[in-house]
């Protein structure tokens, strides 16, 4: 097949137009489909990165005609697409590929099967299917087994894949059960567990920064790195997700998946090839090397917190317990800080500090590599008063880029040293908007490239790491330490890192 390069992204990322396919979205009228999936597909269509023979079939319980479904999605795309205002010519062409099937019972899968067969003949989708589970996890097993029972998952002419949204279980046992259910119908190579963080350009750039440049990898180890901080801070609260969040908490919602995936990319060894399984093999090795935390070690290696009322950007916001759906006795954590060690040749003894919280002062995700101080100080304390250790910061959101902090002489008489930053900003350097994470991941799923998706063994290793901590917290009668909204977490989190002679970097 010819390789098509979108001129808007020429030189940034070679994008192969996938083979013909039908994408079936369960939960086709839901929030995820409306806010993320269809806007991303529209933007791919706008860039001419979708195959000519491509259809989207939304599946839901509501009774909708194709025309009504298209109208619903037009409004959603107009509001949530990253390329606004909507291009009506592009939309008109794209909307012709959108269809809807109501599935209220098991019989509805026969209607879906007939519609897909008709589209294979009329559009030329050749039997290729990408099923997307944009539904609550409680519906996964029913949908997957129905796909198998009605012979929708596989046919004689095309390939099938299934995309599963997190959470991938709520502990190791349920993650095992979910994988067993999926594998009743699909092979592991056909299962794409999506973590949208892995689709962000700066996250992908971790691999490029490390393995396409000769200046970083020689110092990417315990000899030169003092410690690593990975922060995912959110100024928002639970925002309409209270029922789910109160049963999950910050550890399950973000730390078990996003944060540990970022850690794996930072800590992994160089892969032998940029191949899905080879890259994921190295990530699994890094996760397996993480020192396990027993329940007795939790107090030393983990801190949790829960936000109270406070102020964000000058406006009062309610505390977690003020939310109507939260029980007065809820101990659900909205903040987590962890100290993690990767026990291998490269990282032995180097701490990785992970931090995530709701209602912190700002929205920011970054990875900060803090290097050791120089082995011998030539300059007096007065001369180096403004000097801090070298730090390499990978900013993942909201302003994607990379910053390197180093010491420089202040232009005055005599020697005065200050820390300065060398900044790279994606938008300023390439003069194009970075693709949305879902654009990247949907295009990869349609192409069958699983590099940026998590494999079963990755998910299970992540649960092995957090399960003992969650178990210890669930058995404790103590409430999580509190922190006011608009602050950087509980005082216990500051004391946690300061015991090691370090302090949190503020994004």
Summarize the structure.
The protein is of the alpha/beta class and 507 residues long.
Describe the structure using short key phrases:
nine-stranded mixed sheet, disordered N terminus, single chain, alpha/beta, 17 strands, Dihydrodipicolinate Reductase, domain 2, Rossmann fold, 14 helices, about 500 residues
Secondary structure blueprint with pairings:
Blueprint lengths: L20 E6 L4 H16 L7 E7 L5 H15 L7 H8 L2 E5 L5 H16 L5 E5 L6 H10 L10 E6 L6 H11 L8 E4 L6 H11 L13 E9 L8 H26 L8 H14 L8 H4 E7 L1 E3 L2 E3 L17 E7 L9 E7 L6 E8 L19 E7 L3 E9 L7 E9 H5 L6 H11 L8 H20 L6 E3 L6 H8 L9
Parallel strand pairs: 1-2, 1-4, 2-3, 4-5, 5-6, 7-12, 8-17
Antiparallel strand pairs: 7-13, 8-11, 9-10, 11-12, 13-14, 14-15, 15-16
Give a verbal description of the structure.
By secondary structure, the protein is of the alpha/beta class. It has two domains: about 5-165, NAD(P)-binding Rossmann-like Domain (Rossmann fold), CATH 3.40.50; about 200-370 and about 450-500, 2-Layer Sandwich (Dihydrodipicolinate Reductase, domain 2). It has 14 helices and 17 strands. The chain has helices at about 30-45, 65-80, 90-95, 110-125, 140-150, 170-180, 200-210, 240-265, 275-290, 300, 425-430, 435-445, 455-475, 490-500, and strands at about 20-25, 55-60, 100, 130-135, 160-165, 190-195, 225-235, 300-310, 310, 315, 335-340, 350-355, 365-370, 390-395, 400-410, 415-425, 480-485. Strands 16-15-14-13-7-12-11-8-17 form a nine-stranded mixed β-sheet, with helices on both faces. Helix 1 (about 30-45) crosses helix 2 (about 65-80), helix 6 (about 170-180) runs antiparallel to helix 13 (about 455-475) and helix 8 (about 240-265) packs across helix 9. The longest helix has 26 residues, at about 240-265. The protein is globular. About 40% of the residues are buried. Residues about 1-15 have low confidence and may be disordered.
């Amino acid at each position: 097949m010819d390789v098509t390069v979108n001129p808007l992204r020429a030189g940034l990322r070679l994008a192969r137009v996938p083979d013909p396919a039908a994408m079936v979205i369960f939960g086709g009228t839901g929030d995820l489909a409306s806010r993320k999936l269809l806007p991303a597909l529209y933007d791919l269509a706008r860039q001419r990165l979708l195959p000519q023979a491509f259809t989207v079939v939304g599946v839901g319980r509501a009774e909708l005609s194709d025309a009504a479904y298209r109208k619903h999605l037009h409004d959603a795309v107009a509001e949530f697409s990253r390329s606004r205002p909507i291009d009506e010519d592009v939309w008109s062409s794209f909307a012709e590929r959108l269809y809807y099937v109501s599935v209220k019972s098991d019989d509805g899968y026969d209607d879906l099967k007939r519609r897909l067969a008709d589209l294979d003949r009329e559009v030329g989708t050749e039997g290729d299917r990408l099923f997307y589970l944009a539904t609550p996890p409680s519906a996964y097993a029913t949908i997957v087994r129905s796909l198998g029972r009605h012979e929708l998952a596989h046919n004689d002419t095309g390939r099938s894949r299934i995309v599963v949204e997190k959470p991938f279980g709520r502990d190791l046992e349920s993650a095992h059960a979910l994988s067993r259910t999926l594998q009743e119908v699909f092979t592991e190579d056909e299962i794409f567990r999506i973590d949208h963080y892995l689709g962000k350009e700066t996250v992908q750039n971790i691999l490029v920064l490390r393995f396409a440049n000769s200046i970083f990898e020689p110092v990417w180890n315990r000899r030169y790195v003092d410690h690593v901080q990975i922060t995912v801070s959110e100024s928002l609260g639970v925002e309409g997700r209270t029922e789910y969040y109160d049963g999950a908490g910050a550890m399950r919602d973000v730390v078990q998946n996003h944060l540990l995936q970022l850690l794996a990319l930072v800590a992994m060894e160089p892969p032998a090839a940029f191949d899905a399984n080879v890259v994921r093999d190295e990530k699994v090795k890094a996760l397996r090397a993480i020192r396990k935390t027993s329940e007795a070690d939790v107090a030393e290696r983990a801190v949790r917190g829960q936000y109270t009322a406070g102020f964000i950007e000058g406006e009062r916001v309610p505390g977690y317990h003020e939310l109507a759906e939260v029980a007065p006795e809820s101990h659900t954590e909205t903040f987590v800080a962890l100290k993690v060690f990767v026990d291998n040749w490269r990282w032995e003894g180097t701490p990785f500090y992970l931090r995530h919280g709701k209602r912190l002062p700002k929205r920011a995700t970054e990875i900060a590599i803090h290097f050791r101080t120089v082995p011998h100080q030539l300059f007096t304390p007065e001369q180096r008063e403004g000097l801090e250790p070298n730090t390499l910061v990978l900013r993942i959101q909201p302003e994607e880029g990379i910053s390197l902090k180093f010491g420089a002489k202040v232009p005055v008489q005599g020697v005065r040293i200050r820390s300065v930053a060398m900044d790279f900003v994606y938008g300023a350097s390439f003069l194009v908007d970075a693709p949305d994470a879902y654009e990247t991941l949907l295009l990869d799923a349609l192409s069958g490239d699983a590099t940026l998706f998590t494999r079963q063994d990755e998910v299970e290793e992540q649960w092995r790491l957090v399960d003992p901590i969650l178990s210890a917290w669930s058995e404790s009668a103590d409430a999580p330490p509190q922190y006011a909204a608009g602050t950087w977490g509980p005082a216990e989190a500051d004391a946690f890192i300061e015991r090691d002679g370090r302090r949190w970097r503020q994004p």
